[in-house]
Amino acid sequence: MNSSNKFDILRMVLAVGIALLISFLIILIASDEPLRAILELLTGPLKSTRSFGNVIEKMIPLIFTGVGISIMFSANQINLAGEGSFHLGGLVATYIALNAAIPMGLSPWVCVLVAGFLGSLVTAVPAVMKIKTDSDVLVSSLMMNYIIVFFANYVLNYILRDPKAGAVVSFAIPAHIQLNSIIPGTRIHLGLFIALAVAFFGYVLLYKTKIGYEIRITGENMDFAKYSGINVLKVTLISQLIGGFIFGVGGGVEILGMYSRFSWTSSLGYGWDAIIITTLAKKNPLYVPFAAFFLAYLRTGASKMSIATNVPTEIITVAQGIIILLVVAEQFLSKYKHKMIAKEARLSLSNAKEAE
Description:
356 residues; single chain; globular; mainly alpha; transmembrane transporter activity
């Protein structure tokens, strides 16, 4: 492991540690039972199978969104339309489950794949607009999310809504199309294996294929990529399509695994969560499951803490913000990084001289 990787790991660990320490200090000030609150935060998810199941259930969609945005961000394209892709993926999976006559064994997979395909179109729109009109992809992708949410609300209210239900929800998704639970006493479903497979696929794509190399080179230095003969426009579009596809698949898996009806009437926030995940994972899909588990564990612990004590769950939002600030701060531990690199260079030079 080189100095750069060691430094990244060290900085990540310190960022998380500092964020948790500040959170603990806030709890000490705000809570009547600070020690109990901290204990619930750290150990609450481990107290029962159901509680730990909540961690894994929360982790599954975070893996999909983390991998999707890692691929898009690797091309240095700040496309935030993944939120809309995830939302549309859930809607499309529900629509197909309720209306398409598909053989029983294939039904969930067809729903998920079509959800992924339409999800990729959502992220493609801002990418194409950037290529053709040089529009600001950040603004156009944010607007796409609003378009998708209002479109989904229209479809839910006027096409999929069950008039006999006491809320704004779709007709019930047939049981044979839903993804089965794999651990008794929890709602952990087959989507966990799909998510882990997607994370492995993302790693292979980015680090073991030619197109992945081109995506990373384009993201690191677009001018160098152009001079190297890489078709930057094609690579950029491919990264957005693949990322959107993964977001869409994630939305389909979430609906079929965790819900019996479609009821999403507002943004779920997974697109923003994805930014936290990919920041923690340093845009490496192989690390995304670990980052997703960490975030899901903290949020489950915060929920247990808020039930057992008077500390609100928003304390973890504070921790998330501090972690992001420290991780993206270029000057955080920069002097130590220079010392590490210089030490490694001196050691390499010394070894070379000894070899002579």
